[in-house]
Amino acid sequence: MAGRSRNTPDSPSATGPGTEPGGRLPADLAVEELYGTYRTGGLDDETDPDDAPVFVPPVRLLPEAELAEAALRVPLLDRAVRLARWIAPYRPVDQFGEPGTELEAEAAAALGLTDADPDPEHGTAAIMQAWSLAVDLELIEIGEAAEGEDAGEGQVARPGADLEAVESGDPEAVLEAWLSAADVVIDTASEADAPFPDPGELAVGDSDELDEESAAAAVEEFEAAHDEAQELLDQALQVLYESTAFAEQGAETVPLGVLAALLVVPDGQEPTEEMLGDITSVMVSLDPMLSDLAEIGLVEYHPIDPDLFEEPEEEGEAETLLSDAPVDDEEAARFGLVRLTPLGQYGVRQWLLEEGYDAPLVGEHAKGDAARLLRGVSEAVNVLPEEEIREWVRGREPLAAARELLAAARGGDTLGPVRRVLCQLALTELGAGAEPALREVLDDPELGGFCRAWLVERGAADVPEPGRTMALWTTVDTLAAQLLDPDVDTELLTELVGGLPLSPDPAAFLAELWRVDHVCTPEVLDAIGEFHGDKKVAKEARKAAYKARSRRSE
Is residue 506 included in any domain, yes or no? Predict the structure, then answer.
């Protein structure tokens, strides 16, 4: 909850009924200083941190048609599709379903791979990679020859049943094929980071044959290393996904060292010497795997400069790359840079959904009227409210939208304070065109207080002061919105409570406050008792909270 307090020497204090010079009601604060994200469950909801669910931030994806177009431009998938079409109506393959040297060379020439790279081995290697992928995706089917087909001594390969839909650009078919291809590449990349032991290094028995126990141990070691590499890559992709969700447009690229540090260093800690060694190891492990993922379009990756392994590491070099100090872009790039592509965002989200995570999209709450917007955002536990509000506001006529928002912000339920804070944010997005709607509700007991503050904040000089009842009700409402924030800024809350106009008679002010007819009055008084620095005031606030609860139960 960021924002500079307006109660500072270079910021004029707001005044109103019940305020003293230098002391303001929390309702006088700008909405940006009070705003956070909210949860459901009321003010007393407590969750054991160890049992807290993992929240994946909402992302904004490209339309599926654009994602499909991007997928078809990925060279690896493009070659697999073209190769599957090239073999039509069929081509003979050996008994293992492999094309053979002659067919590989012919396919490489037909697909233009020899034109791009004069080394024939590179062309045939690319064909074998594309062939393997096309078979995995069932774009190529291997089977027995039909009558009249010459299979030689083996079988034949034909275009698969799904090829036509993928070739046509059907988004569903293309993205399904791309996801399957990405799965294959990820699995292969993880295996490459866990190479199978050389049989020559394994123990042998008296008969010079491979000892079964040694072989089983080797397989188990390989599988464990593969699982470890897979887990590391999965975690790296999820961190990139979350980083991309919060990054400003054009700033999604992450230095490999920073990505590795996010995977190694616990939140809130500085890396130790031992951690710096682990960070380096993670960077080295991720480097080839991310290069493989770049081939299928999951990431854009600038790999580690291999010359770095030949250079002596300068003292403090790793610490410098992880610090906030400016680093030359060219030098930083030598240590690896990675960016999750729009296709990568789509793919990671699909995998998160398959694993049972809630992975929402931006705009899910902005598809209906203002009531649906405010209700959805205030009730959601995993949401970027500003993004939802901007999505909803875009293209709407300001005055009509403002009236709709104000009507939806009313309500005496527990989440009412949240809706009203969200309403203020949306009104700010609408701008000056919303002003007439706010003036229409200045006498509304639930809306009049924050509407006055909104107008004054924007320089309006003809705004009437609120009555005492409205000012106190809005104070409770504003503090309640803070308390509903699961990540409440305790420093700001302490400042707000400390700035209440309690003098010269705290008991008298609290006696007024506990009588405020608001669903959250007792909890707000509890907060005053907890966060006020004066013990006598805190004691009076707790007594007032008891009275408010007694009044509620009557």
Answer: yes
* Per-residue pLDDT reduced to its tens digit, 20-77: 333 334 444 444 343 333 333 334 444 444 455 678 899 999 999 999 999 999 999 9
Q: Which two tokens stand for residue 462?
A: 């003809």
pLDDT < 70 stretches in the chain: 1-53, 115-120, 151, 153, 192-211, 309-328, 554
Same domain, 337 and 479: no
Length of the chain: 554
**Tokens describing residue 222:** 């390989």
**DSSP bridge pairs for 361:** 59
434 shares its domain with 548? yes
Closest CA to 429 of 393, 459, 482: 393
Q: In whole angstroms, how large is the CA radius of gyration of the chain?
A: 32
Considering the domain architecture, whether residues 371 and 480 belong to the same structural domain is answered as yes
C-alpha span between 370 and 402 (Å, rounded)? 9
Q: Are strands 155-159 and 91-93 parallel, antiparallel or unpaired?
A: antiparallel
Residue 496: is it exposed, middle or buried by C-beta count within 10 angstroms (0-12/13-18/19+)? buried
**Secondary structure of 436-481 in HEC code, one letter for each residue:** HHHHCCCCCCCCHHHHHHHHHHCCCCCCCCCCHHHHHHHHHHHHHH
The DSSP output letter for 99 is -
pLDDT in tens, 270-289: 888 888 889 999 999 999 99
For residues 392 and 429, give the distance between their C-alpha atoms in angstroms, rounded to a whole number. Answer: 10
Residue 404 lies in a domain: yes
Q: Closest by alpha carbon to 111, among 125, 96, 100, 97? A: 125
Alpha-carbon span 358 to 375, nearest angstrom? 19
Q: Which of 132, 167, 183 is the last residue of a domain?
A: 183
Supply the pTM of this predicted model.
0.77
**Domain region containing 499:** 26-55+362-553
Contacts of 231 (CB under 8 A, 6+ apart): none
